[in-house]
Amino acid sequence: MFSLPNNATIIEVGPRDGLQNEKNLIETNVKLNFIKCLQDAGIIEMELTSFVSPKWVPQMADAEKIVKNITKVGRQFVLAPNATGVERAMENGADAIAVFVGVSHTFNKKNINKNTDEAMDSLAPVVAKLKEQGKFVRACISTAFYCPYEGKIEVEDTISLCKVFASWGVDELSVADTIGMANPVESYTLFKRLKEELPNLLLTAHFHDTRKMALANIYAALQAGVDRFDTSAGGLGGCPFAKGATGNVATEDVVHMLESIGVHTGIDVEKVCEAAKIVEPLISGTIDSGQFRLFKQK
């Protein structure tokens, strides 16, 4: 049996990654209630919203209201894709900023109309400014395993990009299986290398559940030494630039698995399910958190 950590941290991404591409516009007060219920469940790290153009992501048009009206509990992230977004985020009091870039050139071109090198050139001064001002910076690495356009991504390419962010002084790397195609061997291999080569950096694994491999990949990442995981209540979310990919791995499923193998999270699964029910009637797709009650321990 591989050695597993005693504790793990869950970073809830439902309010941002989970809802950003939802077709039905979710009212601000519903989002705030969703966030509060997730906090009440014991979640102390969360992606709240995204400071992006409302023209392109109308669901995030209320970012200012979200940041100004939530109760700050632990570390609360906002995504800011560029200098304009970062400026807006800081003006509204955000103190933990997430930036993102894909390893894949084609994915970046489809997403932000820049290849990977151009995207990094744009991000360098943004990250430098954030660090000068003492902000916590989270770098989200998309297409770390596979790309919907280029196929398999080489491990060395992902590690190389992560090392650039590390050299900039970012506080955390969130490394994503964006289209949910990674397997446990690939998960272990990449995260083992990253833990060995960047031992002083917070490292988070972000898995999608397209092939129902997310829990297996999380277990493999645990064995590689990772103890931070992005999850989404009810499995909300997906990537609009990765056709066929389903949502994020469900928070309630991950917490249940971790707690059942002795890896403590401090999160109440039942309360996470109750939080998911707040948005369930309002989204265009379906979520499965209600089914989790089948596994409730007596």
Count of alpha and pi helical runs: 11
- Provide the spatial order of strands within the biggest beta sheet: 1-2-3-4-5-8-9-10
The biggest sheet amounts to:
8 strands, parallel, barrel
How much is the average pLDDT?
92
CATH architectural arrangement: Alpha-Beta Barrel
Family: Belongs to the HMG-CoA lyase family.
InterPro entries: Aldolase_TIM, HMGL, PYR_CT
Pfam families: HMGL-like
Protein name: Hydroxymethylglutaryl-CoA lyase
Q: Any overview of this molecule?
A:
The protein has 298 residues and is an alpha/beta fold. The protein has a single domain, classed as Alpha-Beta Barrel (TIM Barrel). Helices cover 39% and strands 16% of the residues. It has helices at residues 14-18, 28-40, 63-69, 83-91, 105-112, 116-132, 155-167, 184-197, 214-223, 251-260, 269-279, and strands at residues 9-12, 45-50, 75-79, 96-102, 136-142, 146-147, 151-152, 172-177, 202-207, 228-231. The strands form two sheets. The chain has an eight-stranded parallel barrel, surrounded by eight helices. Strands 6-7 form a two-stranded antiparallel ribbon. Strand 3 (75-79), helix 4 and strand 4 (96-102) form a beta-alpha-beta unit. Helix 7 packs parallel to helix 8 and helix 8 (184-197) packs parallel to helix 9. The longest helix has 17 residues, at 116-132. The model is unreliable at 288-298 (pLDDT under 50). Residues 8-273 form the Pyruvate carboxyltransferase domain. Belongs to the HMG-CoA lyase family. Its EC number is 4.1.3.4.
